[in-house]
## 1
Amino acid sequence: MKDGSTPVKIGDSEFDLTQVGDWVLAHPWLALAVVAIAYVFWISRKEGLLGAGLEYLSRKSELRAKVESDRMRLRETFRNRAISDSRESTGVHEEGDAE
Amino acid sequence: MMWLIVTVVAAVAMTLLLDRYLRRSAKSFMRGEEIWSELQTNAAQIVENERYPLGVACLAHALSEAAGCGCFVRAMLMGHYTPKLLFWRRQRAAAKLQHTPWVDDLSQLSEAQKKQLNTLFIKVIIFDSYANPLQGWLLRRLVRNHFAPEAKKAVLSVVARKLVATADIMAAGGLRPAT
């Protein structure tokens, strides 16, 4: 091995870690792509980040859907209430006029 | 080589933080659903009940529409982080209330009705805190101190006092019109 090398021995085989570093520095985008692919495999585990993200999105959309449907119902209730109140007040007004 | 190590460590740290945020947020939304059901029941009772004036029904309806926007949580947090609000805006808020259309309606309510409206208001803030996980978590953490044991309370009593004062201002806006 030449000077400045970092030999790594795995079992019987041996390789130079410095060469790996040199290759990464020479091809940073390729290295990032390798890391990204490994990362995607890692996050695609059930308990991984992807699972957490999907759960987050589903819970959020569930909550939004529930809130929106309940709000629609309350809007309808309020509209009916406002109409009935305005009719009542108009009725009282007319009676007052008649008197 | 150093930048590579730093990048990898930063990426792993970000991943862990994001994972924690997503999981906690999902739980927060689940809790929010439960609170929303209670909130909606409460709001519907007020809107349907003819004994409540229309102005109060309108207020309950508006609170239901606005819940979850994050404005309630941010208002509480702002009240904590900007002390000016506590001393300066109190009078302005009270003065503004004079011109709101439902102030007269509020004064006609019985104690039980006021209590129900107050419950709705509190539930709106709680729901808002669960619908906005990060800010809501911060708010709940600060408010929880108010109910914490004395030793813990002493440490953060200033924070708690400010928040309780802010809540008091907001409750006053809803229930005690300025005279």
## 2
Amino acid sequence: VNAAALADGTRRAIAYWPGWKRLPREARDTMFLLAVIAWIVLPHAPHLPAWSLSLSAAVLLWRGRLALINGALPGRWVLIGVLVVAIGLTFWSYRTLLGKEPGVTLAVALMALKTLELRARRDAFVVFFLGFFIILTHFLYSQSMPVAIAMLVSVWGLLTALVLAHMPVGQPSLAQASGLAARTALLGAPVMVLLFVLFPRMGPLWGVPQDGVSKTGLSNTMKMGSMTEVASDDSVAMRIRFDGPVPPPAQMYFRGPVLTHFDGIEWTPIGLPFASPSIPSRAPALETSGTPLSYEATLEPLRLASVPLLEATTDIAPVDGYRIVARDDLQWLAERPVFERLRVQAIASTTFVLGAPRRPGELQDSLELPVGFNPRTLAWARAFREERRGASASGLAEALLRHIRKQGFSYTLSPGDYGRNAVDEFWFDRKEGFCEHFAAAFVVIMRAAGVPARIVTGYQGTDLPPVDGYYVVRQSSAHAWAEFWQAGTGWVRADPTGAVAPDRIGRSARLAPPPGFVAGTLDAMNPLLFAELRSTWEAFSNRWNRWVLNYSRGQQLDVLKQIGFATPTWEDLGVLLIGSLSALALAGAIWAWLDRHRVDPWVRQLERMKRALVRVGVPAAPHEPPRALATRVRATLGSAGEPLAALLDALEARRYGRAAAKRPDPAMTRDFTSAARRLRTLTPR
Amino acid sequence: VIARALTAPWNVRAHVRAWLTARLPRTDTQLLTQGNVYILPTRAGWMFALTLVVLLLASVNYQLNLGYVLTFLLAGSGVVSMHITHGTLRGLTLRLRPVAPAFSGGTAVLDVVMSSPSSARFGIGLRLLEAPASTLAWTNVAAGGQATAHVSFVPPRRGLHDVPTLSAESRFPLGLFRAWTVWRPVARLLVYPAVEVDAPALPAARPVSGATLEARRSVGGQIEGVRAYRRGDPLKLIAWKKAAQAIETGAELVSRDTSTSARQELWLDWAACGRLAPEQRLSRLAAWTLAADRADTAYGLRLPGIEIEPGDGDAQRAHCLEALALWSLATPGEHR
């Protein structure tokens, strides 16, 4: 019934729609703006609560209907009422009005409502500027190329609507207005490129945006399934060069955020996710043995304060611009997220013991489990513990890993969605997943068995041994493993993924994600074409990452080096930016100044002829056309003036006659002035 | 303008404005150049700048490189729009068509021809400098073409006035900047007295002597011949068939020369207006002039110190109305 009603409604709406060209100007412009707004809001659909989407859709459709039937806009009180409801619903959805999601929700509601108030020009501008702002908020979720293209279209649409609003006469076509908007934006593109390349990149001005940016690498939280994206991302996370001996790949664990707190759905760290300069950090109780390894790591921007370094890095050289310190959970943390490429010189030992807890309650936190989640697993873990009464924590861990190996668990990158009791589902029903499923199940069971345990995220493994000495760690090497507390020893690493997919650990070959539908079809049809497309896309994508997403201060200085600065600094950047902007402004001013002497060439020609006429004694008023001048020349100069009169007649014909030319003939002016000069010398006055 | 500024000496803005306006040379054909086109950001422009700052701060704080791209793209478009806005007026030629006289309290219309030697221009608004922005008359000018804008206003009182200062402006394409120019045409506007509403009927006409009547009748008001075109001849009097030929040969236009039948003649007399105030008498005389013109009778006008011989047609009408407009104004044009 619903589908039928919908189809019927659509049919009626289509029958009602007169087409862009038939709409009256006002209605067409409004419909166009509404379409642009819908296009801007639509990509937010996955992040917005359902009521917000329905409200925006309802308001936009209502406004569209009003535009079509030329109805009256609702009164102010209706709008205020709806706005209050929207604010209330936002608060109800998020329990706050501050932050990213509530902000986006409110902005979308505000823009939709503002369309109901498009009366004065000022209202229209509010919509435009809110639109630009909402476009920006998309980048908080994704900065991928499709999003960029969609938003470019949005900007184009908004500029077109702005241009339309400033063409008050007649019915300019959408194509014309969008052409003018595109021209404006294209002419502005050099300014954009200049500013983008040279505008000095700096750290966040205030606050530490934790929730802000969508990340392609590690994050500070872990949900079941949140890591699939990382696992299929082949971009480089870091490059490592060892100065001396190289540890075996199986030992290469790069330690990132340590996740202790579990609310049943999500794993989060305890403590600040960055090294607050005001709180002295507790150094880890670390005992190392064996020869220390010296290495250099070049980390791509991870947008995290956590710096994933080799386990266990004992010391690092100071890094320009950041204060990076080790914390008691063996994480290396900067005081703010790192948005640029970092180069770190460090010393590490791969054989180490992370000893006594430095923070009171650390072990207690590592035992807590949320109430009401995964009941089957908890019961199973208690039974498992009962069976092994008296076993040490290490003994339990061994037994658990053995269980994983024996019970038909399998490693896959696309395990599908897990429900509320994800660990139950994983442990008993589906038995397939990737590192984070294994690590999470391991930690939950250990905790239920009374052993403090926690999840460690980071990277594991590198590409094949390199030729140039740099080991490449890719985003697809992102990994999650577990640590449990062995009384008398300290924290012990356990990697349950290794129990089921030993390949995953210590090898460079990784499981490739299964190809998508399109890729699969293409591959079946023409493997070569697919490979070529893929490599082209990857090259393009790499360039996009390098020049747009990860363009930071380091790259800026590289650019300066390329254009000839030997040792570029931040100040050089500023000077260059201001210099080139001034040069551009000066060029614009000079162009406009030269332009002021521009006179219609026809007028200029006639004026020169008139001056020549006045010199031979024939008065010429500013308003007189060539025809009138010719008559006067014939009358005052007689046959002597005939050449001049003939030229004037020719000018008249050239400009106004049947075969009028587009431009004046400069030869005519020359002939005229020389004829006038001859006349003057012949008959001195 | 000047008078008002002088009556309010504390109004510095008006003073400066009046002084600036008075400095402008008067001309009926104004070429807009770098020198006489001004440009400033609009309120929306400042709002746009504020939006850009907010976008830039968000980009810096959230480290969004695409945010930078968006901000700088908009900034670049804004800068370009400034040049386009200025270029919309620059190079344009404004020309005032001969101004038709108007009645006081009626509507005076100024026809301004805008011609663009180069590209097409959109959204050019024209208004009196003193008038509110809502009175803007909008025009587009095609590339290399011309367009006419009509600015109408209500002239204050009778007399020969300077055409008020005009202002042309544009906010095209994005509305972030407003470019404008101020233009003082040299032309003058003749304002007839206000026409009295519900004026009494025309005074009685008196027949003229028989001889004149006979002479006029013999020609029956038909064409007697042609004469050279005189400025002010109505279009219907121009001999159009001959005109084409005349233009071809470079000769002047010719008009039909008619004698009109004048069986009766009518005197519109200042003294016949009863005991009205002078301005009201002028209004009544203006109303009578129009009525007599419509009635197609010959009429003359008597004002203290002025007597216009009976006649009819457009020229007579214009002559009489002009006399009414200028009567007892010592130096026309003082009353601005």
